[in-house]
Design goal:
- The protein has about 100 residues and is mostly helical.
- Helix 3 packs antiparallel against helix 5 and helix 4 runs antiparallel to helix 5.
- The longest helix is centred in the last third of the chain and has 31 residues.
Length: about 100
């Protein structure tokens, strides 16, 4: 139990970040009308940019000789970037459906 409390006190800034992220997410999602849920979900992939920031943050904490950690961090950044770009592509395609054609 003492180790858990020590770990929590050492990583309090990360805990604050997670708690604030949850509150912001609940507020953003909770105030959206039902009609907009599908575009919101495609656009929500852009919010997954937090994964990219988190992966970069973790990679900065690693030693240069930790090859496995660096490889996993690289793939986390790569997949997070693909998710964000895919979200923007899907959102753009959905918005194209609402434009008037000439």
């Amino acid at each position: 139990m003492e180790q858990i409390l020590l770990y929590l006190s050492d990583h309090m800034d990360m805990i604050y970040f997670i708690v604030l992220s949850v509150f912001v997410g609940v507020e953003v999602i909770g105030n959206v009308p039902t009609v907009l849920h599908t575009p919101l979900m495609s656009g929500a992939n852009a919010i997954h940019g937090v994964v990219i920031v988190g992966a970069i943050y973790v990679m900065l904490q690693l030693h240069t000789d930790d090859i496995a950690g660096l490889i996993l961090g690289f793939f986390a950044v790569l997949l997070g970037t693909l998710n964000v770009v895919g979200g923007f592509v899907v959102t753009d395609r959905m918005l194209e459906m609402f434009k008037k054609k000439n």
